[in-house]
Amino acid sequence: MNKLFTICFISFIMFTHVATAQSLQSWRPGEQQIKIITVDDVEKTEDAMHALKASYSIGLSISYEEADGFIRCYVTPEELNFLREQNLKIEIEVDDLNKLSASFGSRGVPTGYYTVAELNQIADSLATNFPDICTKHLIGTSSANHQMFALKISDNSAIDENEPELLFDGGIHGDEIGGPENLIRFARDLCTGYGTDEEITFAVDSAEIWIIYCLNPYGRDNMTRYNANFIDLNRDCGYMWNSSGNSLALFSQPETKVLRNVLTEHQFVIHNSLHSGIEFVSYPWSYRQTLTPDDANHSYLAQQYSINSGYLNLPYGPGFSGMYAINGSTKDFGYGATGAISWSVEISMNKQPPASQIGLFYLNNKSAMLSIVNHAINQGINGIITDSITGEPLAATVFVSDLFPINTSALTGDYHKFLVPGSYSLRVEATGYLTQTISDFTVNQGEQTTINVQMIRGGRYFVQSLISCQIPNNNPEDEGNTPAVIGKPDTIAYSIGRNGLVVVDMGTAILNRTGNDIKVYESDDTPEGYNVYASENPLGPWSILGTGNGTTSFDLSATFLSKARYIKITDDGDGSSQVPDAGFDLDAVENLHPDTLTVGWVSGITYNDQEPYFVIPGAIVTINENEVISNENGEYIIACVPGDFELSVTAPYYYGIDTVTIALGDTLIHSMYLSLTESTQFYKDQSGFSVYPVPATDYLTLQGPSGGYLIEIYNMHGIKLDEANIYVTANGYIYQTSRFLTGLYFMRIYDNEQLYTIKFIKGQ
Ligand SMILES: [Zn+2]
Q1: Same domain, yes or no: 694 and 636
Q2: Distance between CA atoms of 176 and 346, rounded to whole angstroms?
Q3: 3-state secondary structure of 753
Q4: Which helix (H) or strand (E) holds 19?
Q5: Are 214 and 220 in contact (CB under 8 A)?
Q6: pLDDT for 665-684, tens place per residue?
């Protein structure tokens, strides 16, 4: 008895000790919340930004956010000392964040706010009481082993329908407690208002609304910005990540991995992330000053959010705001990697306003949140991407004009994108399918344009989407053109930055087969060095495939992997960092051995069909609607689904057609011999010019009306090789052709009034 009592007593002591230690460790030891005052003082602001930047180079890691007239920072005593030495005007807002957090006691949140457990209970009750329109999804586990949940609110909530999807998240910074309060109320109003409130009923019927009401449960339980590992999660996302906010690596934390999965497994038109500390709608970019290609869409929707909110004035703009970069934010990933309209809404100046104001801040945002749901439903482009033979939906990448691409899922094949009114073009890429383009469609105010696209098999296998990227310390000179890595080689590149990296999803696994399995294309003739890694998982672990220099092929045999779907490319570190096109210029990555083989290939050379045989470059080779152009050596390789098909080739004055049999996974070697569509002895009715012999040997004789002429000689590329003034007699004119290579040439003959063109073939 006595012994048992002692054990119980000891465990009680240990438990309280652990609990106290945990609450003391919400923030880093001694951490304070401060303001650097910069009011209308450009110089002061620049000094502050330099100081913050300099702190990184000496190993400090100051988290900060910009507001109007001040920069709010979270600093340890060491970091504060460093800032003080910079002669900045500093105000202490909270002198002991750990003490403040501990003051909320065992509930963790101020009185009147919901704990994480209470938020989960409300979510449970909504899923239980409104099963048709509300489902609760376990989406992962936090850094402190909390289960993490999302609610999906939509008619037929259990199934994925052809409807626009939206994501609302809150609480990524655990001490910014208004977001989760707003979102759980929004979920409750959507459920209880369904069937009675017209706007809510329309929204729930027509959209799929996902709500991650608490993205950082540890942070909320312990009233801290960070997760259990002291990481600022809004610096940990993998789009232009830069090791700020204590982040150790791209998507290093369980919470950001969860968000990444949700964002990539769904196709969100709008991703709305709630914060507090200021009042502002902040959209991409956060990492660079340049406006996004979608700036008109971001700016219009942010304006709609602001107008439809209850705030007297809710300003909005790009996160960068002209001063400094935040790297690794959720919004830059949401937009940069998935093409969603993605932003942060900062809902209150105070991060923990009195509980009496929770309702006010909710109502300020409720109508704005509903309005963006309605915009996603009512305006833009949508459609379904399917296989032209089976009619099955396809995973595809959809490019609208020059905007960042969006994806479809293999489950439903539907895509949706909000667009301001205008005319646009559409390009759809899917691995193993031919590219489809639709030029010139219009989006009108308050209208949806529907374009369904059927994809034709027989294409090759290139990158389907971007997973993550990094340019160390940013490169303001660079275009940051990440969509350029998707699809086939097109000489449009993404320069990955000096020592930068990029991770791509091939969409289809690459199999380790005989020979090379992967080909990496560089866009230009200046080869640059890089390393290539492969993995079956988007976040690694990575196995090295080798080192490339310019366009290079790789064999999976270099690793222990039998297959891989994700490829990581890192720059070799040569060259300069702060220049245009720094680092390796990645054009495309090709999967040479896709694991769902649906095609074979034909490879050959385009020739003429009579002696002397010569190569015909630049010929258009077509099979089953796929098309390639033979290169300067007349070589071509073209993919096609299995079966018997006509292979046709056209070039200026030449044409050929053969029937070929394509076998799954095989490459048929089949050169094409093209016939001239007209005679080389081409008589003009009114002039009667002719040449002989055919083919010409070391010379040819031009016959025709006697007289003086100017002649010009062109090759098949249209390049002028010679020009001469000649006189044709009754015996003709002898023209030396010994210096020409075998092939087809054009002679243009001018007299004072007319131009005649005659062709000749040079023999060996
Ligand atoms: Zn925040």
Answers
A1: no
A2: 9
A3: coil
A4: helix 2-24
A5: yes
A6: 788 999 999 998 877 666 66
Please check whether residues 87 and 137 belong to one and the same domain: no
C-alpha 277 to ligand 1 mean position (Å): 7
Residue 199 and residue 298 in one domain: yes
Q: What is the Å distance from ligand 1's center to 99 Cα?
A: 20
Percent of the chain at pLDDT exceeding 90: 68
- The SS3 of residue 221 is helix
Same domain, 7 and 130: no
Ligand 1 geometric centre to CA of 241 (Å): 17
d(CA 233, ligand 1 centre) in Å: 9
Cα(245) to centroid(ligand 1), Å: 12
**What is the Å distance from ligand 1's center to 276 Cα?**
6
- For residue 253, the model assigns a pLDDT of 97
Domains of the chain: total? 6
Give whole-number Cα distances, 742 to 673, 674, 715, 746, in Å. 15, 15, 11, 13
Average pLDDT over residues 442-467: 95
684: in domain? no
- 195: domain CATH number is 3.40.630.10
Average pLDDT, the chain: 90
Judge contact between 758 and 682, C-beta under 8 A: yes
What is the Cα–Cα distance from 341 to 335, expressed in whole angstroms? Answer: 6
Q: Which residue type does 228 have?
A: A
Query: How far apart are the CA of 586 and the centre of ligand 1, in A?
Result: 34
Summarised one tens digit per residue, pLDDT across range 116-172 is 999 999 999 999 999 999 999 999 999 999 999 999 999 999 999 999 999 999 999
Separation of 173 CA from ligand 1 center, angstroms? 5
Is residue 683 domain-resident? no
Residue 283 Cα to ligand 1 midpoint, Å, equals: 13
CA of residue 65 to ligand 1 center, whole Å: 8
The verdict on 118 and 192 lying in the same domain is: yes
Residue 573 has pLDDT above 80, yes or no: yes
Predicted pLDDT of residue 11: 41
- CA 508 to ligand 1 centroid distance, Å: 37
Ligand 1 center to 176 CA (angstroms): 6
Distance 350 CA to ligand 1 centre (A): 11
- For residue range 691-728, list pLDDT tens digits in order: 888 888 899 999 988 999 999 999 877 889 999 999 99
Task: For residues 123 and 95, state if they share a domain.
Answer: no
Q: Give 224 Cα–ligand 1 centroid separation in angstroms.
A: 11
CA distance 753 to 630: 38
195 and 269 co-located in one domain: yes
DSSP per-residue string spanning 396-461: -EEEETTSPPEE--TTT-EEEE---SEEEEEEEE-TTB--EEEEEEEE-TT-EEE--EEEPB----
Structural domain boundaries, residue 610: 600-676
Q: What is the mean pLDDT of residues 225-243?
A: 95
Neighbours of ion ligand 1 (CB under 5 A): 173, 176, 275
Taking the centre of ligand 1 as the mean of its atom positions, its distance from the CA of residue 183, in whole angstroms, is: 15
497 CA → ligand 1 middle, Å: 29
pLDDT at residue number 592? 92
CATH number of the domain enclosing 724:
2.60.40.1930
pTM above 0.90, yes or no: no
For residue 33, the CA-to-ligand 1 centroid distance in Å is: 13
Question: In the listed set 591, 620, 642, which residue is the last one of a domain according to the structure?
Answer: 591
Same domain, 70 and 125: no
Q: Find the 109 Cα to ligand 1 centroid distance in Å.
A: 16
Residue 180 Cα to ligand 1 middle (Å): 12
pLDDT of 503 strictly over 60:
yes
Q: What is the CATH number of the domain that holds 630?
A: 2.60.40.1120
In a domain, 695, yes or no: yes
Distance CA 314, CA 175 (A): 22
In the reported structure, the alpha carbon of residue 507 is separated from the centroid of ligand 1 by a whole-number distance in angstroms of 33
- Tell me whether residue 361 is in a domain: yes
Å from CA of 66 to ligand 1 middle: 11
Reported as a pLDDT band with limits 50, 70 and 90, residue 114 is very high
Q: What does the pLDDT average to over 78-93?
A: 90
Residue 316's pLDDT band, with cuts at 50, 70 and 90, is very high
104 or 376, which is more confident? 376
Residue 124: φ, ψ to 5°: -60, -45
